[in-house]
Design brief:
Elements lengths: L2 H26 L5 H21 L14 H28 L7 H12 L4 H27 L6 H18 L5 H18 L2 H16 L6
Helix pairs in contact: 1-2, 1-5, 2-5, 3-7, 3-8, 5-6, 5-7, 5-8, 6-7, 7-8
């Protein structure tokens, strides 16, 4: 599959996956099973997007096989450390400026996890895999090549900013700066390693670090 067609197919599929639980609930009133529906929706969605990615033979200018699985895993953990450091630093600044550092989006997801432990699979598998494919691989990586921005550092920076702002706005949370900064971090790691699997590992580990303790409370 060509890069442009693959990118459109992935973005369209993600939009459908993202909206499907709300759409089904509005039509069939499935409030009693909405958590299970959303979990399966995201897990199946991750498989769908990963499959579309697998059959995309054309690579963007960031993709590279220069890093083996060992470096991918190492940088995945480095990404986790940097992501947690960023969140701690921004939360500290918010506290100093007398602002609320708590994320409503995160709090809502953790509440759903506590109500239905099965939902944790949405947080630690479905969502991070899809978000890395959509926001880092497609909007950041593929956009570079399709728009011809990969020829300059300004173009690469522009696509990273667009990707990160889209990532932040998608979370529908007041902490746009924090999410956008995390998005920029994951863009940098993707470009550094040339492997989208690296940011998937970082994102999965970050979400697991936040969500897993809820199951033991």
């Amino acid at each position: 599959m060509k890069l442009a067609k693959s990118s459109i197919a992935i973005l369209f599929s993600y939009l459908v996956i993202f909206l499907l639980p709300s759409l089904l609930n509005s039509i069939f009133n499935i409030k009693n099973i909405i958590i299970s529906v959303q979990t399966w929706d995201y897990l199946i969605g991750a498989i769908v997007l990963a499959t579309l990615l697998y059959f995309t033979k054309e690579k963007n200018s960031i993709d590279s096989n220069k890093n083996g699985i060992d470096n991918v895993v190492i940088w995945g953990f480095i990404g986790l450390f940097l992501a947690l450091l960023i969140q701690f630093a921004i939360s500290f600044i918010l506290i100093l400026t007398k602002q609320n550092p708590a994320s409503e989006n995160t709090a809502q997801l953790l509440t759903l996890t506590k109500a239905s432990p099965f939902f944790i699979l949405t947080i630690v598998i479905g969502a991070p895999i899809m978000e890395e494919i959509v926001f880092r691989k497609v909007i950041f990586g593929n956009l570079n090549k399709l728009m011809g921005w990969d020829k300059s550092s300004v173009g690469i920076t522009m696509s990273a900013i667009i990707s990160s702002l889209a990532f932040a706005l998608m979370h529908q949370d007041g902490h746009i700066f924090m999410y956008a900064t995390l998005g920029l971090l994951f863009c940098w790691i993707y470009r550094k390693t040339g492997r989208i699997q690296t940011t998937m590992i970082s994102h999965i580990l970050m979400n697991t670090f936040v969500a897993l303790p809820v199951l033991f409370k």
